[in-house]
Design a protein that fits this description.
mainly beta; single chain; about 5% helix
Length: about 120
């Protein structure tokens, strides 16, 4: 996987070492502008602002990707949990995890994504 040379240390840690940023610390958590969220590593469009919602979890949350083939879902049994990892389909970078607990959203899904893995285009 090729790395964007402009990434911060935190972004590299999240994208390539599957780290998680601290809850409520991400630069895009409270972003309410209209646009698209893109992979910080390869700039692939991942999520649209109209699918973003406040889950109260401390990370940007989306109920669906912009395009169904924008992300890949991978079984993740790390840290003693069974979860679904969300990765950028284009470059394979770690974005966050998918949970089926957004019962008040159209898909019932919560793509819980690290701000550090994203950039935003208005």
């Amino acid at each position: 996987m090729q790395q964007n040379p402009n990434l911060t240390d935190e972004q590299k840690d999240v994208l390539f070492n599957k780290a998680t940023e601290a809850p409520f610390s991400g630069k895009l958590l409270h972003n309410d502008k209209t646009g698209v969220y893109i992979c910080a590593n390869c700039s692939q469009t991942l999520f649209a602002s109209d699918a973003k919602f406040d889950s109260g979890s401390g990370w940007p949350s989306f109920y669906q990707p912009k395009e169904t083939d924008a992300v890949s879902l991978v079984d993740d049994s790390s840290h003693g949990m069974q979860r679904t990892e969300v990765v950028c389909k284009n470059c394979g970078a770690h974005l966050g995890h998918l949970f089926d607990d957004a019962h008040d959203q159209p898909t019932g899904q919560r793509f819980c994504i690290n701000s550090a893995s994203l950039d935003f285009n208005e």
